[in-house]
Every structure is written in structure tokens, then in C-alpha cells.
Design goal:
By secondary structure, the protein is mostly helical. It is built from 16 helices and no strands.
Length: 420
């Protein structure tokens, strides 16, 4: 409930995959590992949050610019693209073929709310949509286990290509291990190091979330009542009508939740650009300029999202794989640099910034080359292996640069750059 951006995409994927999904041993182990990876760091949440904040604050100006720019690109391009894709799956029962108009309307409405609403209202939206999306997933999960009604026509998506799906035989393959490592990196970055999450955790207060839990609870109870009543209806037509109504309820709640998440995302773009990125490039920054920069960034992100709609509409089912691939590749250098900052006692901010810049650049080039000459990379678990490249280059370049510190010229350069 405290990671709305992460939950929004993951829960929408779960909503699409659960209805027709029959996991084998590999997938059960994969999901258990993912759950452990997600929940384990919360045992050390206070320490991790303070370390993540210090990682940004104590970084070199180059590193701060890169982290801020990385966050703005993620929130203004990749996250809206994934959200539009998820919303588009739930629109057919309500808008038939007029998806473009509906998506444009949702995008513009989200922009207007993000511009007009204050931070407190945005926080309320964030918690409410998390509650609604979680309730939707619980409804689908309960139906899959208890009622077994065909609520959706979606087929399960294979998110772990190359893994064994049978109930027997070995399943701890190299691809499985690589996928777990990449998933660990993605989840950790989204939950603890993504810039809007760092800002949100820093400004988090003791606001009650009872109202938001109540919203999710009402949505869940209404769905359970619908499904339960359908179970005991005798006429086949009545059962079909009840199942359709339950499906519409879940679809409507999911659209509302994802739309709210879209509002939170583009509001975060404005905040991150105005209060993190913009001050690093401007000598004179005041409150009025930052407020204007905030609104301009929101308008820009809405325009970008509108331009992404026809691309999303024409994209295939590989959209989510591209999204996961981006996260696996472009977050590995940052997570590796964060790990280095925790382990190494003598901090070298410039070396650390240069290292994850090199790691990110190498991973980006590798990804683009593979996409151009081997498009099948996004259809297999080899896309996860690209994240290992970024992590390795980051760690190796840091070790090499620190090892070169004995050279007089390098020592002088590092001494000057570490203390700008």
C-alpha cells in the first residue's frame, strides 16, 4: 500500500494473468521468491529509507543529475506507456472500439487533476487507487480459487520464458536464477530507490489510511456479494448476467484505480522536475519559478502520453516485456552503485557516479543492439541477462577507477571531482 507506482503495474498485470493461469512448480517457486524479495526489505525499512535518501544527497552533482533525469524519463515515458497499456485492456466492455478517444480523455483528465490538485489530495489519490487495485486482485484471486467463473477473456501471459512448466523435472535453471536476480533489482529499485518513492517516503506522515482501506473494502465486498449470489443462481442466463456484472465491476474499479495512478505518476513528474532536476541547472531558483516548472512538466508529460497512445494501440502483447526489460536493464547500475555505497567505507562520489553512468550506457547500447539485430531478445529470458551486464560494468568500472588512484594524475582528478 505504500508503493503505489510499483503496485499499480504489478497488480494490473496480475489482474490480466490470474483468471486463466495454472502455475506449475517453477512458477510457484518464482512467485514465492518474488514475494520474499518484496517483503524482506520492509524488516529494515527505516535504515534502507535513510540510506536511499543519503545515496542521493551525498552523491556527486553528476550523479544527482543522472538520477533525477533517469527518474523523470521513467515517470514521463515508460510508466505512462505501461499504464495506458493496462487501462486499454479494461476498456472494451465500456467503449467498444473507441479506445483512442477514451485514452485521450483519461490522459487529459489526469493532467488537469495533477495541475489543479495539491500534494495532500494527490496523496489521497495514491492510497485510494492502491486500495482499489489490491481489492481487484483479491477478487480475481478468490474467483480463481473458489468460484472459478470466466470473468475475463484474457489469456495468461508467460513472464518467465524458458522455464519448465511441467510438474516434474528440474526447474532451477540458469534462466530462472537470472530472472530472480533481475526481478530483485527491479523490485528493490521501484520500492526503495525510484526518485518519486524516495521523495514520498521522506515526506510520509501519520495520515490515517482508514478511508482508503474502506474504499478498497467496499469494492471487494461488492464483488464477493456478486460472485456469491451468482454461484447460487439456477438459470444459466442469470449466471451469465451475474458473471458479466462482476467482470464489469472489476473492470470499472481497475480503470478507476489505474487512472488515479496515472494522475499520481504525472504529478510526480512535475514535482521531480521542478524540485530536483531544474534547480541543478539553474543558478537562481525561487518558489514561483519552481511552481511554473512543475506545471510545465505536467503539461509536457500529458502531451507525451497522448503521443504514446497510437504507439500503444498498435503494439503487441510484448509491451509488458519491453517494460520489464527496461527496468531490468536501466535500474541494475543504480542498484549496484547503491550497494557499493553501503559496502565501501571511503566514499568516492565522482567515481560512483561515473561508474553507474558507464554501466547504464553499456546496458543501453547492448539493449539497442540486441533489439535491432536480435528482436527475439525481448521474447526470452535473455532480456534479464542484460541487467547483469549493467551491474557488472558498474562494479568493474568502480573497481578499476579506484585501483587507478595510485596514478598521480588520476589521484588529482579524483580529488578535485569528489569535492566539487
Amino acid at each position: 500500500m505504500n508503493t503505489p507506482l510499483f503496485l499499480g503495474v504489478v497488480l494490473s498485470v496480475a489482474l490480466l494473468a490470474l483468471p486463466n493461469y495454472s502455475p506449475g512448480y517453477t512458477d510457484i517457486l518464482f512467485l514465492c521468491s518474488a514475494g520474499l524479495i518484496f517483503f524482506l526489505p520492509f524488516a529494515f525499512s527505516s535504515k534502507i529509507s535513510s540510506s536511499a535518501s543519503a545515496f542521493f544527497e551525498n552523491n556527486h552533482p553528476l550523479g544527482k543529475k543522472l538520477l533525477s533525469f533517469h527518474g523523470v524519463v521513467f515517470l514521463s515515458i515508460f510508466q505512462p506507456f505501461a499504464l495506458l497499456w493496462a487501462i486499454d485492456y479494461f476498456l472494451p466492455p465500456f467503449f467498444s472500439e473507441a479506445h483512442n478517444v477514451a485514452l485521450i480523455g483519461i490522459t487529459v483528465l489526469g493532467g488537469l487533476i495533477a495541475v489543479a490538485a495539491g500534494p495532500k489530495f494527490i496523496r489521497h489519490i495514491s492510497r485510494s487507487v492502491s486500495s482499489v487495485l489490491l481489492a481487484g486482485v483479491l477478487l480475481v484471486a478468490v474467483n480463481a480459487v473458489v468460484f472459478r467463473f470466466p470473468l475475463f477473456l484474457f489469456t495468461a501471459t508467460e513472464f518467465l520464458p524458458g522455464a519448465e512448466q511441467s510438474t516434474g523435472g528440474p526447474f532451477l535453471t540458469v534462466n530462472f536464477v537470472i530472472a530472480i536476480i533481475a526481478l530483485s533489482i527491479i523490485i528493490f529499485w521501484l520500492t526503495w530507490l525510484e526518485m518519486s518513492e524516495v521523495e514520498r517516503k521522506r515526506g510520509m506522515n501519520g495520515e490515517s489510511s482508514k478511508l482508503h482501506m474502506m474504499i478498497g473494502g467496499i469494492f471487494f465486498i461488492a464483488g464477493m456479494v456478486l460472485l456469491g449470489s451468482v454461484k447460487y443462481l439456477g438459470a444459466e442466463q442469470d449466471v451469465a448476467a451475474g458473471v458479466h456484472a462482476a467482470g464489469l465491476l472489476i473492470s470499472a474499479g481497475s480503470i478507476a484505480g489505474l487512472t488515479g495512478l496515472f494522475v499520481v505518476t504525472i504529478a510526480s513528474v512535475g514535482s521531480l522536475f521542478a524540485y530536483r532536476l531544474y534547480p541543478q541547472f539553474s543558478g537562481s531558483v525561487d518558489t514561483e519559478k519552481q511552481a511554473l516548472a512543475n506545471k510545465l512538466a505536467v503539461v509536457f508529460s500529458v502531451i507525451v502520453a497522448v503521443l504514446l497512445i497510437p504507439i500503444e494501440r498498435n503494439a503487441s502483447g510484448n509491451v509488458i516485456l519491453w517494460y520489464i526489460g527496461f527496468l531490468a536493464i536501466f535500474t541494475a547500475p543504480i542498484v549496484t552503485a547503491f550497494a557499493i555505497s553501503l559496502v565501501v567505507k571511503k566514499q568516492r562520489p565522482f567515481v560512483l557516479s561515473l561508474s553507474f553512468a558507464l554501466g547504464g550506457f553499456t546496458a543501453a547500447v547492448d539493449f539497442l543492439v540486441n533489439s535491432a539485430f536480435a528482436p527475439s531478445v525481448i521474447e526470452s529470458s535473455s532480456m534479464f541477462s542484460l541487467s547483469i551486464v549493467g551491474a557488472f560494468v558498474t562494479a568493474a568500472s568502480y573497481a578499476v577507477l579506484v585501483g587507478m588512484k595510485e596514478l598521480v594524475v588520476v589521484r588529482r582528478v579524483l580529488s578535485r571531482m569528489d569535492h566539487p
